[in-house]
Write a structure and sequence with these properties.
Radius of gyration: 54 Å
Number of helices: 3
CATH class of the largest domain: Mainly Beta
Structural class: alpha+beta
Strand order of the largest sheet: 12-20-19-15-16
Number of domains: 4
Strand content: 35-45%
InterPro entries: Ig-like_dom_sf (IPR036179), IgSF_CEA-related (IPR052598)
Keywords: Coiled coil, Disulfide bond, Glycoprotein, Immunoglobulin domain, Signal
Order of helices and strands: EEHEEEEEEEEHEEEEEEHEEEEEEEEEE
Helix content: 10-25%
Length: about 325
Amino acid sequence: MFPQLNGQTVQLMLERPTEFRFEQNGGLILRSASLAHSGNYSLIVIVKSPTGNVETKKYERSANLTVAEPPRMSDPLQVAQDRKAIYDHHAGRWHVTLTCGQFVSLGHPAVDVVWQVTFTTIKDLKAENTDLKAENTDMKAAVKDIKTENTDIKAAVKDIKTLVNNNTATLGVQGLTWNDNVGADLRTCVGKQFQFEWSYTLDNTEIELSKNWTAMLNGQTVWLMLERPTEFQFEQNGSLTLRSASLAHSGNYSVTVDVMVNTTTGNMERMKYERSANLTVAEPPRTNGRLQVAQDRKAIYDNHTSMWHVTLSCGQFVSLGHPAVDAVWQ
């Protein structure tokens, strides 16, 4: 065994017998490596013929051995994930990942200190941008759905308001109960008697304070009991009867009932209940004596189109009524 250590050839069996173990098969074992053991190691085997007639042969194997000492770190040093230094056999360098603290290298070979930082590559940014675009598309679709849902909710709220206005009392308390569902759009003809069937029932714990009937006629609010007492009949149960309808009676009618209600908390609270409806008073069209009606002398009112329908066979036709007349000549 003839290694080259620090530039000098050392015969290991003669000079370092205690540091190595020598195997019969040629193996060499370094008992405890130190930095001084770094160098080139060789094994030379010389083979001679027993008879001496064959030429002597020489066989050799060699290898470089590098003994490294890991770098040492002072106490304040914090290693990111692993306190052990990692040796890169390919690069022949130590790799240490640090987050903070002081670092002192007492080892060999060189130390590659990698400081851990947070960074983003262009590739990552492009991928993130693609994800954001996809997310933005999804959000736009979600906003569209929300707008559609909002429209549906607004329509539902409108229906609920109509229902509350015409059929129910304020939620959360046990209060006045309307007995009939009259509807919001009502119609009658000139000269007819018409009743708004707005009857209601009070709970035995409720006290009625007052009720008033009003109408919005030609853009003006009319207090019926004060201004039109002879044209209407006012019922104790809340109903209102129009004695003889005229075109001027077309408008929006309401009844408002003020009561003291026993709430769920046990306190008395003043509540207002209201029913309202639009009333359209129509006058059928009139015809002169020469007009011949095909099948029915009565004009037919179409609630869907809000028009009168008259089928004529011949003669003169004059409309003195309201609303418009749809005249179909046979």
